[in-house]
Amino acid sequence: MNVTRGFTGRPRVHNAGLPPGQYDAGDDWPVLSAEVTPDLAPADWTLRIDGLVAEPRTWDWEQAHALPASAYEGDIHCVTSWSKFGVRFGGVSLDTFLEAVRPDPAATHAVAYAHTGYTANLPLADLTGGRAWIVWDYDGRPLPAEHGGPARLIVPHLYFWKSVKWIAGIRVLDHDEPGFWEQNGYHARGNPWEEQRYSGD
Ligand SMILES: Nc1nc2c(c(=O)[nH]1)N[C@H]1C(S)=C(S)[C@@H](COP(=O)(O)O)O[C@H]1N2
Ligand SMILES: [Mo]
C-alpha cells in the first residue's frame, strides 16, 4: 500500500493515479449541477428501486440508515477534467439495496434518477460488486446539499456525472436508456481510464 501526503498534510491511502486528461483539483471540490439545489429534508428523502426486479421497494431515511454501513475511500473523476484524491463517503453499498429487490436475470442496465429529474444510465454490472453506494456522509459529516445531500449515488470508478445527486431511485431495465448527459452527447458508460467522455470515444 502506497501512502503519500497531499499539500494539506492529510495522509492519502492510495493511489491509482490520474486517468488520462485529468488534473488534481487538490482541496477544491467544484459543484456541478444542471439544476437548482433542491431543498430536500432527510424526512422527505426516499429511495425507490423498481423496474425489472422481483420486489420493488422504497426506503425512507430511517430504513436506509438501518442497513449495514459501508464507506468509499478513494478518488473521483469529473468529465470536465478535475479529479479528487482520497475522498471519504459514508452510506450503504448499492449491493445491499439490490439484494433486497432481486433484479431479474434478464436485467442488464439501470437508470438512476434524482428528486429533481436528472437521470444517468448505467450498466447494472457497474452498480454491483461493491462499486456503487448510496451516501449521506462526506468526511464524517452530513453531505452538503450542493453536493447532493441529503443523499446521492456514487459510482466512483466511472466519470462523476453518473453519480446522481439527490438520488430518488433506480429503475432496473433489460436495455440501455440514455440519461440527461448521455442524450447530450456523453458516453453511455464513461470509464475515465479509457477516456470515454463523449459517445464515440
Ligand atoms: N442531480 C444531479 N446529479 C448530478 C449532476 C447534476 O447536475 N444533477 N451533475 C453530475 C456531474 S456532471 C458531476 S461531475 C457530479 C458533481 O458532483 P459535485 O457537484 O458534488 O462535485 O454530480 C453529478 N450528479
Ligand atoms: Mo461532471
CATH architecture label name: Alpha-Beta Complex
Number of domains: 1
Helix content: under 10%
User: Spans of 5+ residues with little confidence (pLDDT < 50)?
Assistant: 1-7, 9-13
For the record, the CATH class is: Alpha Beta
Say what the CATH topology is.
Answer: Sulfite Oxidase, Chain A, domain 2
- Counting DSSP H or I runs of 4 or more residues, the number of helices is 2
Distance between the amino and carboxyl termini = 32 Å
CATH superfamily: Oxidoreductase, molybdopterin-binding domain
The topology string of helices and strands comes to EEEEEHEEHEEEEEE
Q: Strand percentage, roughly?
A: 25-35%
User: What is the approximate shape?
Assistant: globular
What binds here, in terms of ligands, is: the ligand Nc1nc2c(c(=O)[nH]1)N[C@H]1C(S)=C(S)[C@@H](COP(=O)(O)O)O[C@H]1N2, molybdenum atom
Structural class from helices and strands?
mainly beta
Alpha-carbon Rg, integer:
16 Å
Give the overall average pLDDT.
Answer: 94
Strands, total number: 13
Main pleated sheet: 6 strands, mixed
Write a compact overview of the structure shown.
The chain has 201 residues and is mainly β. Helix content is 6%, strand content 34%.
Q: What does this 3D model show about the protein?
A:
The longest helix is centred in the middle third of the chain and has 8 residues, at 94-101. The protein is globular, with a radius of gyration of 16 Å. The protein has one domain: Sulfite Oxidase, Chain A, domain 2, CATH 3.90.420. Strands 3, 6, 7, 10, 11 and 12 form a six-stranded mixed beta sheet that branches. Strands 5-4-13-8-9 form a five-stranded mixed beta sheet. It has a two-stranded antiparallel ribbon with strand order 1-2. The protein has helices spanning 61-65, 94-101, and strands spanning 2-5, 11-14, 23-24, 46-51, 57-60, 70-77, 82-93, 109-114, 119-123, 133-138, 141-142, 152-154, 167-173. The protein has 201 residues and is mainly beta. Bound molecules: ligand MTE and molybdenum atom. Residues 32, 78-80, 160-161 line the site of molybdenum atom. The ligand Nc1nc2c(c(=O)[nH]1)N[C@H]1C(S)=C(S)[C@@H](COP(=O)(O)O)O[C@H]1N2 binds at residues 29-35, 78, 114, 116, 118, 147-148, 160-161, 163-166. Pfam families: Oxidored_molyb (PF00174). This is Sulfite oxidase-like oxidoreductase. Residues 37-181 form the Oxidoreductase molybdopterin-binding domain.
